[in-house]
Fold this protein.
Amino acid sequence: MKQLQDAILKYGNAVNEHVLKVDAFLNHQIDPTLMNEMAIDIIEHFKHKEIDKVVTIESSGIAPALMVAYQLNVPLVFFKKSTSSILNGECYQSHVHSFTKNIDYILTASHDYIHADEKILFVDDFLANGEAALGAADIIKQANASMVGIAIIIEKSFQPGRERLVTEGYDVYSLARIKKMAAKHIEFIND
Ligand code: 5GP
């Protein structure tokens, strides 16, 4: 998606060859117009699929995922990164290794908000090793729901996330695919 690539080139800061900061429009300050355009693009890709619910992971996935859910007129559920006292009752849980923080966390979702047979679109800000998406997929399986697609805002294609998810049979759609990056240099895959 051209607008997103332009924003990444203008504001993106490759901290090193593996981590990109996009605080100016996604991870700290949020550009609502860009979120809206991205949601239109994601919905166009998945227009042939039935979607009952959008799922993301707190916190950086929430802004783009909310726009998608709003336009589809379905609920958004964000999975939490730790057991929270706000979550009463039974929860689904899955262990995830965080790429950026290099720590493990427990992804948690209440039984109240994911139900059997629901068709779920997962939306997240970045795809690196695929751990977050696979953890979300695990919870969705535990609930006997199905993940009908995975929409990613920025995929770092030099990392194995996409391959792992595609091998598992998921339909992965990324709005920007980064082939490689270094300080002041970001190269995209355009297909
Ligand atoms: P994965 O689980 O695919 O290894 O990593 C994806 C998650 O880690 C995303 O939800 C995102 O929050 C975070 N992440 C991975 N790589 C980056 C990156 O380069 N920049 C930022 N800002 N977050 C990242």
